Amino acid sequence: MNLLVCISRTPETTAKISFAENNTKFNSDGVNYIMNPYDEWYALVRAIELKEAVGGKVIAINVGGPENDIVIRKALAIGADEAVRVNGDPNSALFTATQIANYAKENACDIVFCGKETIDYNGSEVGAMVAELLDQPFISYASKMDVEGTKATVERDIEGGVEVVELDTPFVISAAKGLAEQRIPNMRGIMMAKRKPLAVVEATAVDAKNEIVSYTMPAGKSAVKLIDPENMDELVRLLHEEAKVI
Amino acid sequence: MSVLIFVESNKGKFKKSALEAVYYGAQIAKQKGSEAIALLCSPADNPAELGKYGASKVIHQNLESHTDNMVVADLIKQAADANGAEYVIMTNSSLGKSLAGRVAIKLDASLVSGATSLPESDSVSKKLFSGKAIASIKLTADKKVISVMGNSVIPEEIGSDAPVEAGSYTARTGRVTVKESKTSDGVVPLPEAELVVSAGRGMKGPENWGIIDEMAGILGATTACSRPVADTGWRPHHEHVGQTGVAIRPNLYIAIGISGAIQHLAGVNNSKTIVVINKDPEAPFFKAADYGVVGDLFDVVPRLNEAFRKFKQ
Ligand SMILES: Cc1cc2nc3c(=O)[nH]c(=O)nc-3n(C[C@H](O)[C@H](O)[C@H](O)COP(=O)(O)OP(=O)(O)OC[C@H]3O[C@@H](n4cnc5c(N)ncnc54)[C@H](O)[C@@H]3O)c2cc1C
Ligand SMILES: Nc1ncnc2c1ncn2[C@@H]1O[C@H](COP(=O)(O)O)[C@@H](O)[C@H]1O
User: Fold this and answer.
1) Which one of B126, B291, B294 makes the best mutation probe of the A interface by having the most chain A beta carbons within 10 Å?
2) Any ligand 2 atom below 6 A from CB of A96
3) Is residue A136 part of a domain?
4) pLDDT of A80-128, one tens digit each?
5) Is there an atom of ligand 1 within 6 Å of B51 CB?
6) ipTM greater than 0.85, yes or no?
7) pLDDT band at B47 (very low <50, low <70, confident <90, very high)
8) What residues are paired with A34 via a beta bridge?
9) What is the pLDDT of residues B28-41, one digit of tens each?
10) How far apart are CA A246 and CA A237, in angstroms?
11) Which of ligand 2's atoms lies nearest the C-alpha of B113?
12) Which member of A165, A195, B131, B300 lies 3.0 to 4.6 Å from B295 by CB, making a disulfide possible if both were Cys?
């Protein structure tokens, strides 16, 4: 099976977020980057497990510049067989999805895995776009997946529960918690990753349809109002009369 | 020109988020001097009701299941084309998120998912970096798809029942079959809950959750937990909120024995009012809280339950 895993790079959750150029650009100074957790922990690992079970290969794909090679190497260290970086600025979901879909089309991928969402732009947009560009089914927020031959059974998170669905390959899936257990790369994996192929291809141009006009920081919370633990009636009164939430 | 709103129903009823989407779409239609048309593809007891929130017409085309987003997206595309839709609006639900990207590609449209404001000169706000920043994003294409984050607008009754018309579009054959759907009845699912009572490792063990369930019971709230609590199996996984769990935006979030790590806050910092109960006055959660109680939860929570009970009587 040809399994394509979409890997993105995001600032660490604890990174301090700030903006430059009159609040129109993200300020990456001093920001630590990681592989997007949903891509690393769930999408990539489930793809590797599947390959280990049924054979085939796992290709990690990233759309971005050379600064992304570190996270791509990490994907190889965890167990992807090869990687491709589509060289370009992943400044919109449309741009990114177009590159991924082009690659998947040319390389006849059976399953395209992506993460539930990137934790920086919180879009949850790329997977659905890739699926549409490929005219394939899209199963979002998968928390369990079994594949037998060309038939897949997937459990996906829906509001207040789960839904079990069946479908045939090829398809696109987005990975949520539960799909796999995080794997930590070992020394051997890290050494092997250095010898695995990382191809770089140029991105195709895509007309932007969105423009980030400006960034702002949310208004800070005013200081917490502390309530005497002996006086819970006061808390209830404040929730009712001041906050008006009960 | 028109605004097309894809409306979800659940067991024949409209959730608040569905009415928000209709109201949101109706406000855009008002701005643009165009018409707000609701597209409904699931059973509903009273589709005409959408008129109250601003829909001038409801197109009702029943599908057996919404699970195959290829099929639903195709219907939305047909309806958008037939009605010359400039804007297509949907809820930022699990279905909405799986549809929005598809529909945007089909219509060659701009897309913003999870918008938190109405468009102003075709720009909307959206939270980024798990709520640590807000971007103003301009949708520059002729057609625009927006999925609306819950609680971004307060739906008001601005009209009366709308005419309902049976949809005459052709649904394409789906490729996904639903085998089973397991949803817990009775409790409001976390993403939609208005009141959430949540507890963390400070609870010491699963056997102590009685006081949490009790509070949730009195308030009619949904229960949640921090990640380590779900990871160690004290509570079911679907209760885990935060960056790697469910993101919620209730009116009231009560956090009990949770330290307030940034990854936890990422999923709950959109709550309107946050109450923190923690014995450590230095717990980071107090910085994100509106109301705080410094004390031992095993004393405080039973007392608060008593106070809630008195209030409810
Ligand atoms: C990449 C990543 C993603 C993560 N995603 C999530 C996520 O989605 N959600 C999440 O929750 N976490 C997440 N975490 C974990 C997170 O960093 C914290 O470890 C976790 O939230 C801590 O849970 P806790 O507050 O329940 O436990 P603790 O940090 O152990 O806090 C327990 C709190 O209870 C208080 N306490 C103890 N006893 C009492 C008492 N008797 N009365 C009152 N208070 C008491 C203590 O003062 C303390 O503040 C993530 C971590 C990483 C690295
Ligand atoms: N630049 C990128 N390169 C490769 N995959 C990406 C990129 N950006 C996003 N993805 C994939 O798409 C998923 C959803 O991203 P998003 O739509 O931005 O929330 C991520 O979890 C990744 O799997």
Assistant:
1) B291
2) yes
3) yes
4) 999 999 999 998 999 999 999 999 999 999 999 999 999 888 789 999 9
5) no
6) yes
7) very high
8) A10
9) 999 999 999 999 99
10) 9
11) 17
12) B300
Query: At residue B244, does pLDDT exceed 90?
Result: no
d(CA B255, CA B223): 10
Task: Report the alpha-carbon distance of residue A63 to residue A201 in Å, rounded.
Answer: 10
Q: Which domain holds residue A55?
A: 2-218
In chain A, residues 38-57 whose CB comes closer than 8 Å to chain B:
38
Q: Quick check: A161 and B99 CB within 8 A?
A: no
CA gap A91, A108 in Å, rounded: 26
Through-space distance between the first and last CA atoms of chain B, rounded to whole angstroms: 52
Q: Chain-wide mean pLDDT for chain A?
A: 95
Write the residue with the smallest CA distance to atom 1 of ligand 2. A63
Q: Residue B260 C-alpha to ligand 1 middle, in angstroms? A: 6
Whether residue A207 is predicted with pLDDT greater than 80 in this model: the reply is yes
What is the reported pLDDT for B212? 98
* Partners of residue B252 in chain A, C-beta under 8 Å: 239, 243, 245-246
Report pLDDT for B191: 84
The CATH number covering residue A73 comes to 3.40.50.620
Q: What pLDDT sits at residue B66?
A: 83
Determine, yes or no, domain membership for A180.
yes
Q: Residue B189: its pLDDT value, please?
A: 85
CA–CA separation, A142 vs A178, rounded Å?
Answer: 8
- What are the sequence ranges of the domains in chain B? 2-166, 190-312
Confidence category of residue A175, pLDDT binned at 50, 70, 90? very high
B2-166 and B190-312: same fold?
A: yes
CA distance linking residue B217 with residue B221, whole number of Å? 7
Q: Is residue A238 part of a domain?
A: no
- Beta sheet of B110-115, edge-to-edge order: A210-216, B133-139, B123-128, B110-115, B144-148, B85-91, B2-7, B35-40, B57-60, B164-166
CB B15 within 8 A of CB B49: no
Q: CATH classification of B2-166, choosing from 3.50.50.60, 3.40.50.620, 3.40.50.20, 3.40.50.11890? A: 3.40.50.620
Q: What is the mean pLDDT of chain B?
A: 95
pLDDT at residue A160 above 90? Answer: no
pLDDT grade, residue B54 (50/70/90)? Answer: very high
Select from B132, B133, B90 the least CA-distant residue to B114: B90
C-alpha–C-alpha distance, residues B195 and B224, integer Å: 10
**Mind telling me how many Å the CA of A29 is from chain B's nearest CA?**
16
Q: At what angle do helices B69-82 and A126-134 cross, to 10 degrees?
A: 80
Structure tokens at B141: 């294409």
Two structure tokens written together for A43: 């999408």
Could you give the number of structural domains in chain A? 1
pLDDT by residue (tens digit) across B266-303? Answer: 899 889 999 999 999 999 999 999 999 999 999 999 99
What's the pLDDT score for residue B177?
95
